[in-house]
Amino acid sequence: MKFVNFRLSTAFSLYFRIANQIDADVQVIYENEHICCILDIAPFNEGHVLILPKRHYHDLEEMDDITLKAIMDAAVLISKKIKLVFQPDGITICQNGGIFNDLTHFHMHVIPRYKNDGFRWSDPVINHKAETRLSETREKLV
């Protein structure tokens, strides 16, 4: 197996072991030279997959275009397979960045979803009223 971007400083980190299948009991469903797709060890629903780049990236904006494309191509491929095998009512694709990235390595979730499965976005704890400032927010972002 070819290891991408192997560095001693990251050789034994969790992401490296998972993405490169070293000393980790992972269930790989797809991989190529850029990414590894595995079953989540704590799935929300059966078929919950994690897409991990083989090189270390913490956040989305750090990645090169080839890796980004490999991740999105895998998300489409996995979504199609999940729909064929599990016939979910839908699929949620999400990624948590910054301090919310529990692996400290970029990973994208592809989760088969079913009506009333309990998965939901919660309302914000802080009443920030961002919905009242949409025009101002757009101006900040364009």
TrEMBL record:
Active site: H109 (tele-amp-histidine intermediate)
UniProt organism field: Paenibacillus lemnae
InterPro entries: Histidine_triad_HIT, HIT-like, HIT-like_sf
Matching Gene3D superfamilies: HIT-like (3.30.428.10)
The protein's name in its UniProt record: HIT family protein
Superkingdom, natural source: Bacteria
Domain HIT: 15-120
PANTHER family linked: ADENOSINE 5'-MONOPHOSPHORAMIDASE HNT1, HIT FAMILY PROTEIN 1
GO biological process: nucleotide metabolic process
Short motif (Histidine triad motif): ranges: 105-109
